[in-house]
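Bumping my old thread because nobody answered last time. Still need a sequence for this structure:
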């Protein structure tokens, strides 16, 4: 099917998502809760793009939005970039020492967090839950409660027999990784990664 991404007409296979199509043609869309080999979850919304049909447009999570014939996708409009910066601000307010989030903030030109910090240790991206269930076939952890009380938990707060202590949940977590060596207080941004990006516009990694 024919799809237009950032003004370029491309072809997409049936069953592909907007994110699949964009990445196939080398269009960069940032993701956090999405990983190859795991089911789409659309929790972080960082992969948001703008989809236009005629005079109307809407914001969608590209990781779970299937492509359709004639769809027009814009991945870097001001509306999209503003939404991504806002999402990063909200996540950094609760987990400022995540190196992944700090790097993403620098890449998106974010230099200040305006929201009051909470110093939490989870952004509810669901990566650990899906990794344990879908790749490790363990199902030892899951989400508990709803709303502001939602959290990742083990049954009865005890390590179940299904847990092999493989460490996959820690490996994939964007918060449990080696922490950013910059800020120590909620709401702070070190932007050391931003300085690195200015010096090297084509860095080899984060």
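Sorry it took so long. Here it is:
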């Amino acid at each position: 099917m024919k799809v237009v991404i950032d003004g370029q007409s491309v072809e997409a296979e049936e069953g592909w998502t907007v994110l699949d199509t964009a990445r196939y043609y080398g269009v960069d869309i940032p993701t956090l809760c999405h990983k190859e080999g795991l089911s789409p979850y659309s929790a972080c919304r960082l992969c948001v793009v703008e989809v236009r049909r005629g005079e109307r447009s809407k914001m969608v999570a590209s990781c779970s939005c299937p492509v359709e014939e004639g769809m027009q996708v814009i991945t870097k409009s001001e509306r999209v970039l503003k939404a991504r910066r806002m999402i990063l601000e909200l996540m950094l307010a609760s987990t400022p020492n995540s190196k992944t989030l700090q790097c993403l903030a620098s890449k998106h030109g974010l230099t200040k967090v305006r929201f009051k910090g909470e110093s939490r240790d989870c952004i509810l991206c669901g990566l650990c839950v899906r990794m344990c269930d879908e790749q490790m076939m363990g199902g030892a952890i899951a989400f508990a409660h709803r709303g502001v009380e939602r959290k990742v938990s083990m049954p009865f707060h005890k390590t179940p027999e299904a847990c092999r202590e493989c460490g996959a949940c820690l490996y994939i977590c964007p918060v449990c990784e080696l922490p950013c060596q910059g800020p120590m207080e909620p709401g702070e941004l070190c932007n050391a990664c931003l300085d690195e990006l200015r010096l090297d516009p084509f860095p080899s990694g984060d």
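The chain is about 25% helix and 15% strand. Let me know if any region looks off to you.
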